[in-house]
Amino acid sequence: MVDEADDGDPVVEAGRAARPNTVKIFYEYTYWFWVFLALASLVLQATRTVEVGPVHQMILDNGELAITLAFDIEIVLRVLSTLPNWRTFFNQGDNWLDLFLAITTSIIQIPSIHRSNSYPWFTIFQLMRFYRVILEVPRMRPLLVSNNNLITLVLKLTLL
């Protein structure tokens, strides 16, 4: 019988070997790609100006669509990496936030929303992906995770 440990890894009982989750192994190998993609999303958004030419606008639109689809695939990979106990996916706050951002940024890519006057306000959700890059800076994770810190409060309010 195989049980799940607190971190979602299989624990072997009674001498039976657990099969490694190949999706989880693949995701762990590609982890830094997703962090880089969050940085690329921020850089892409940073190139936006008030008056954007048609070619630049096409690059922005196609780039954000591609990045959004990539993060949708990442969420699916992360859920699959928790199988067979998929509920463990929801044990981490990062997964909740990334799932919310994946759904929200996918919705704003719907053409009628994307072409609306409110779309520029919705791009905040695309910018929020940058928190993943911030978490990789060694001393920033404790600031974002702790609840009793003024900097954490400011960052969380800024992201929301």
Structure notes:
This protein has 160 residues and is mainly alpha-helical. The protein is 62% helix and 4% strand. It has 10 helices and 2 strands. The chain has helices at residues 22-29, 31-46, 54-80, 93-107, 111-114, 119-122, 124-127, 131-135, 140-145, 150-159; strands spanning 2-4, 10-12. The protein has a two-stranded antiparallel ribbon with strand order 1-2. A hairpin with a 5-residue loop joins strand 1 (2-4) and strand 2. Helix 2 (31-46) packs antiparallel against helix 3 and helix 3 (54-80) runs antiparallel to helix 4 (93-107). The radius of gyration is 18 Å and the shape is globular. It starts with a strand and ends with a helix. 9% of the residues are buried.
How is this structure best summarized?
With 160 residues, the chain is mostly helical.
